[in-house]
Amino acid sequence: MRPAFMRAGTWLHAGRYVGAVMSDLPRRNGWTIARQVGDRSPDRTQRLLNRAAWDTSAAMSAVRRFAVADLDQAARRAGRRRGLAAGALDETGQEKKGLATAGVKRQRLGCAGGTENGISTVHLSYIREGAGHALIGARQWIPAEQIDDPATSLVMALPLDLKFAAKGQLAIEIPGDAFGDGAGVDFVAGDEVYGNCTGLREYLEGEGQAYVLRVPSNFREPWPAVSRSPAPRLSGRCWPMTGGGRSAPPGRAPRASAGTPGRTSPPPRSGTAC
User: Where exactly are the structural domains of the chain?
Assistant: First the structure.
Protein backbone atom coordinates (compact mmCIF):
# COMPACT_ATOMS: atom_id res chain seq x y z
CA MET A 1 0.00 0.00 0.00
CA ARG A 2 2.89 2.38 0.73
CA PRO A 3 3.67 3.18 -2.98
CA ALA A 4 0.18 4.65 -3.38
CA PHE A 5 1.04 7.54 -1.03
CA MET A 6 3.49 10.34 -1.75
CA ARG A 7 4.07 11.17 1.92
CA ALA A 8 4.74 8.75 4.77
CA GLY A 9 2.58 10.82 7.13
CA THR A 10 -0.42 10.50 4.83
CA TRP A 11 0.12 6.75 4.55
CA LEU A 12 0.32 6.32 8.32
CA HIS A 13 -2.80 8.38 8.94
CA ALA A 14 -4.65 6.43 6.24
CA GLY A 15 -3.84 3.24 8.14
CA ARG A 16 -5.21 4.71 11.36
CA TYR A 17 -8.33 5.90 9.54
CA VAL A 18 -9.00 2.45 8.06
CA GLY A 19 -8.48 0.89 11.49
CA ALA A 20 -11.07 3.25 12.97
CA VAL A 21 -13.59 2.54 10.20
CA MET A 22 -13.16 -1.21 10.76
CA SER A 23 -13.47 -0.91 14.55
CA ASP A 24 -16.59 -1.46 16.64
CA LEU A 25 -17.40 2.25 16.92
CA PRO A 26 -21.18 2.58 17.35
CA ARG A 27 -21.15 5.73 15.18
CA ARG A 28 -18.61 6.72 12.56
CA ASN A 29 -18.14 10.39 11.77
CA GLY A 30 -15.29 12.87 11.74
CA TRP A 31 -15.28 13.41 15.50
CA THR A 32 -15.64 9.78 16.59
CA ILE A 33 -12.91 8.67 14.16
CA ALA A 34 -10.64 11.50 15.36
CA ARG A 35 -11.01 10.36 18.96
CA GLN A 36 -10.43 6.73 17.95
CA VAL A 37 -7.10 7.55 16.25
CA GLY A 38 -5.99 9.94 19.00
CA ASP A 39 -6.58 13.31 17.28
CA ARG A 40 -8.09 16.33 19.02
CA SER A 41 -10.23 17.26 16.00
CA PRO A 42 -11.27 15.71 12.66
CA ASP A 43 -9.03 18.11 10.69
CA ARG A 44 -6.39 15.52 9.81
CA THR A 45 -8.97 12.98 8.67
CA GLN A 46 -10.79 15.59 6.58
CA ARG A 47 -7.48 16.62 5.03
CA LEU A 48 -6.75 12.97 4.20
CA LEU A 49 -10.10 12.50 2.45
CA ASN A 50 -10.38 15.92 0.77
CA ARG A 51 -6.92 17.25 -0.09
CA ALA A 52 -4.15 14.70 0.52
CA ALA A 53 -2.30 13.36 -2.54
CA TRP A 54 -2.60 9.61 -2.93
CA ASP A 55 -3.30 7.20 -5.80
CA THR A 56 -6.78 5.75 -5.23
CA SER A 57 -6.46 3.30 -8.13
CA ALA A 58 -3.18 1.91 -6.82
CA ALA A 59 -4.61 1.60 -3.31
CA MET A 60 -7.68 -0.21 -4.63
CA SER A 61 -5.47 -2.54 -6.66
CA ALA A 62 -3.45 -3.47 -3.57
CA VAL A 63 -6.63 -4.18 -1.57
CA ARG A 64 -8.08 -6.18 -4.46
CA ARG A 65 -5.02 -8.42 -4.82
CA PHE A 66 -4.93 -9.00 -1.06
CA ALA A 67 -8.64 -9.87 -0.83
CA VAL A 68 -8.61 -12.24 -3.81
CA ALA A 69 -5.46 -14.05 -2.63
CA ASP A 70 -6.88 -14.42 0.90
CA LEU A 71 -10.22 -15.82 -0.33
CA ASP A 72 -8.47 -18.22 -2.70
CA GLN A 73 -6.27 -19.42 0.17
CA ALA A 74 -9.32 -19.87 2.41
CA ALA A 75 -11.00 -21.93 -0.32
CA ARG A 76 -7.95 -24.18 -0.57
CA ARG A 77 -7.89 -24.69 3.20
CA ALA A 78 -11.58 -25.67 3.03
CA GLY A 79 -10.77 -28.29 0.42
CA ARG A 80 -12.41 -26.36 -2.43
CA ARG A 81 -9.37 -25.75 -4.58
CA ARG A 82 -11.52 -26.09 -7.72
CA GLY A 83 -14.63 -24.37 -6.35
CA LEU A 84 -16.41 -21.70 -8.35
CA ALA A 85 -15.32 -18.07 -8.34
CA ALA A 86 -17.84 -15.44 -9.42
CA GLY A 87 -17.84 -11.68 -9.90
CA ALA A 88 -21.11 -9.95 -8.94
CA LEU A 89 -21.89 -6.49 -10.29
CA ASP A 90 -24.32 -4.39 -8.30
CA GLU A 91 -24.89 -0.88 -7.08
CA THR A 92 -25.42 0.55 -3.64
CA GLY A 93 -26.78 3.83 -2.41
CA GLN A 94 -25.77 5.98 0.54
CA GLU A 95 -27.87 8.76 2.01
CA LYS A 96 -26.20 12.18 2.05
CA LYS A 97 -27.26 15.57 3.33
CA GLY A 98 -26.60 18.81 1.50
CA LEU A 99 -25.60 19.45 -2.10
CA ALA A 100 -21.79 19.66 -2.05
CA THR A 101 -20.90 15.95 -2.16
CA ALA A 102 -19.92 14.72 -5.62
CA GLY A 103 -22.75 12.74 -7.20
CA VAL A 104 -25.37 13.64 -4.61
CA LYS A 105 -28.96 14.06 -5.83
CA ARG A 106 -32.46 12.84 -5.08
CA GLN A 107 -32.67 9.32 -6.43
CA ARG A 108 -34.02 5.87 -5.67
CA LEU A 109 -31.97 4.39 -2.80
CA GLY A 110 -32.57 0.83 -1.66
CA CYS A 111 -31.03 1.56 1.74
CA ALA A 112 -33.63 4.28 2.31
CA GLY A 113 -36.56 2.32 0.90
CA GLY A 114 -37.51 5.10 -1.49
CA THR A 115 -36.35 8.34 -3.10
CA GLU A 116 -33.88 10.27 -0.95
CA ASN A 117 -30.87 12.53 -1.25
CA GLY A 118 -27.75 10.41 -1.72
CA ILE A 119 -25.04 8.97 -3.92
CA SER A 120 -24.84 5.74 -5.93
CA THR A 121 -21.79 3.53 -6.49
CA VAL A 122 -21.29 0.50 -8.77
CA HIS A 123 -19.37 -2.34 -7.11
CA LEU A 124 -17.79 -5.64 -8.11
CA SER A 125 -17.75 -8.39 -5.47
CA TYR A 126 -15.42 -11.39 -5.67
CA ILE A 127 -17.25 -14.49 -4.45
CA ARG A 128 -15.31 -17.68 -3.69
CA GLU A 129 -17.29 -20.87 -3.13
CA GLY A 130 -16.86 -22.15 0.40
CA ALA A 131 -14.73 -19.18 1.47
CA GLY A 132 -16.66 -15.88 1.36
CA HIS A 133 -16.80 -12.68 -0.63
CA ALA A 134 -15.29 -9.19 -0.71
CA LEU A 135 -15.76 -5.96 -2.65
CA ILE A 136 -12.80 -5.63 -5.03
CA GLY A 137 -13.76 -2.70 -7.26
CA ALA A 138 -15.97 0.37 -7.39
CA ARG A 139 -16.88 3.41 -9.47
CA GLN A 140 -19.10 6.22 -8.25
CA TRP A 141 -21.90 7.26 -10.59
CA ILE A 142 -21.92 11.02 -11.26
CA PRO A 143 -25.10 12.52 -12.83
CA ALA A 144 -24.60 14.16 -16.23
CA GLU A 145 -26.03 17.49 -15.11
CA GLN A 146 -23.31 17.85 -12.46
CA ILE A 147 -20.55 17.17 -14.99
CA ASP A 148 -22.03 19.55 -17.58
CA ASP A 149 -22.51 22.46 -15.14
CA PRO A 150 -19.10 24.22 -14.69
CA ALA A 151 -20.10 25.81 -11.36
CA THR A 152 -21.40 22.57 -9.86
CA SER A 153 -18.41 20.63 -11.16
CA LEU A 154 -16.06 23.12 -9.53
CA VAL A 155 -17.85 23.06 -6.16
CA MET A 156 -17.81 19.24 -6.13
CA ALA A 157 -14.14 19.17 -7.21
CA LEU A 158 -14.89 16.84 -10.13
CA PRO A 159 -11.95 16.05 -12.45
CA LEU A 160 -11.81 18.46 -15.39
CA ASP A 161 -11.69 15.61 -17.92
CA LEU A 162 -14.52 13.60 -16.36
CA LYS A 163 -17.04 12.28 -18.89
CA PHE A 164 -20.51 11.03 -18.06
CA ALA A 165 -20.84 7.25 -17.85
CA ALA A 166 -24.00 5.24 -17.29
CA LYS A 167 -23.86 2.50 -14.67
CA GLY A 168 -23.44 -0.14 -17.35
CA GLN A 169 -20.41 1.73 -18.70
CA LEU A 170 -18.90 1.95 -15.23
CA ALA A 171 -19.41 -1.80 -14.95
CA ILE A 172 -17.16 -2.30 -17.99
CA GLU A 173 -14.22 -0.54 -16.34
CA ILE A 174 -14.39 -2.37 -12.99
CA PRO A 175 -13.96 -5.99 -14.23
CA GLY A 176 -11.18 -4.77 -16.52
CA ASP A 177 -9.22 -3.55 -13.48
CA ALA A 178 -9.88 -6.82 -11.67
CA PHE A 179 -8.80 -8.96 -14.62
CA GLY A 180 -5.65 -6.86 -14.91
CA ASP A 181 -4.80 -7.73 -11.30
CA GLY A 182 -5.25 -11.44 -11.94
CA ALA A 183 -8.69 -11.77 -10.36
CA GLY A 184 -10.09 -14.43 -12.68
CA VAL A 185 -13.69 -15.59 -12.26
CA ASP A 186 -15.74 -18.39 -13.75
CA PHE A 187 -18.59 -16.00 -14.57
CA VAL A 188 -19.76 -12.42 -14.02
CA ALA A 189 -23.31 -11.90 -12.72
CA GLY A 190 -25.59 -8.88 -12.55
CA ASP A 191 -29.18 -7.68 -12.69
CA GLU A 192 -31.15 -5.95 -15.50
CA VAL A 193 -29.17 -2.71 -15.25
CA TYR A 194 -26.12 -4.60 -16.49
CA GLY A 195 -27.77 -7.31 -18.59
CA ASN A 196 -29.48 -4.65 -20.70
CA CYS A 197 -26.17 -2.90 -21.42
CA THR A 198 -24.99 -3.94 -24.89
CA GLY A 199 -21.52 -2.51 -24.32
CA LEU A 200 -20.94 -4.59 -21.19
CA ARG A 201 -22.08 -7.83 -22.84
CA GLU A 202 -19.90 -7.19 -25.86
CA TYR A 203 -16.92 -6.38 -23.64
CA LEU A 204 -17.27 -9.62 -21.66
CA GLU A 205 -17.70 -11.65 -24.83
CA GLY A 206 -14.64 -9.99 -26.33
CA GLU A 207 -12.64 -10.99 -23.25
CA GLY A 208 -13.93 -14.57 -23.49
CA GLN A 209 -15.56 -14.12 -20.09
CA ALA A 210 -18.68 -16.12 -19.25
CA TYR A 211 -21.53 -14.16 -17.70
CA VAL A 212 -25.02 -14.59 -16.25
CA LEU A 213 -26.91 -11.31 -16.56
CA ARG A 214 -30.60 -10.76 -15.96
CA VAL A 215 -32.53 -9.06 -18.77
CA PRO A 216 -36.09 -7.68 -19.10
CA SER A 217 -38.86 -9.98 -20.34
CA ASN A 218 -39.06 -7.98 -23.60
CA PHE A 219 -35.35 -8.36 -24.38
CA ARG A 220 -34.44 -9.83 -27.78
CA GLU A 221 -31.01 -11.25 -28.58
CA PRO A 222 -29.84 -11.17 -32.23
CA TRP A 223 -27.99 -14.49 -32.23
CA PRO A 224 -26.73 -15.69 -35.63
CA ALA A 225 -28.79 -18.48 -37.17
CA VAL A 226 -31.36 -18.30 -34.37
CA SER A 227 -34.75 -16.73 -34.91
CA ARG A 228 -35.50 -13.73 -32.69
CA SER A 229 -37.37 -14.89 -29.61
CA PRO A 230 -38.59 -13.20 -26.42
CA ALA A 231 -36.30 -13.63 -23.42
CA PRO A 232 -38.39 -16.27 -21.61
CA ARG A 233 -37.94 -18.65 -24.58
CA LEU A 234 -34.23 -17.88 -24.88
CA SER A 235 -33.71 -18.79 -21.24
CA GLY A 236 -34.72 -22.35 -22.06
CA ARG A 237 -32.31 -22.74 -24.98
CA CYS A 238 -28.94 -24.05 -23.84
CA TRP A 239 -26.10 -26.29 -24.95
CA PRO A 240 -24.57 -29.16 -22.91
CA MET A 241 -21.17 -28.77 -21.28
CA THR A 242 -18.91 -31.34 -19.63
CA GLY A 243 -19.78 -31.69 -15.96
CA GLY A 244 -23.54 -31.22 -16.34
CA GLY A 245 -23.42 -27.43 -16.52
CA ARG A 246 -24.68 -25.16 -19.28
CA SER A 247 -22.80 -23.42 -21.99
CA ALA A 248 -23.45 -21.26 -25.03
CA PRO A 249 -22.76 -22.27 -28.64
CA PRO A 250 -19.10 -22.32 -29.74
CA GLY A 251 -17.58 -18.88 -29.58
CA ARG A 252 -20.34 -17.38 -27.42
CA ALA A 253 -20.43 -16.76 -23.68
CA PRO A 254 -23.31 -18.34 -21.69
CA ARG A 255 -26.11 -16.04 -20.69
CA ALA A 256 -29.25 -16.31 -18.63
CA SER A 257 -32.40 -14.25 -18.78
CA ALA A 258 -35.53 -13.85 -16.72
CA GLY A 259 -38.80 -12.05 -17.24
CA THR A 260 -41.85 -11.12 -15.25
CA PRO A 261 -44.90 -13.05 -16.49
CA GLY A 262 -48.05 -11.04 -16.93
CA ARG A 263 -46.36 -7.66 -16.93
CA THR A 264 -47.23 -5.20 -19.68
CA SER A 265 -44.00 -4.36 -21.48
CA PRO A 266 -42.97 -1.81 -24.12
CA PRO A 267 -42.00 -2.99 -27.61
CA PRO A 268 -39.12 -5.50 -27.67
CA ARG A 269 -35.58 -4.12 -27.81
CA SER A 270 -32.10 -5.62 -28.01
CA GLY A 271 -30.42 -3.74 -25.19
CA THR A 272 -29.16 -0.22 -24.77
CA ALA A 273 -26.00 1.47 -25.93
CA CYS A 274 -25.42 2.58 -22.28
Answer: 1-54, 55-247
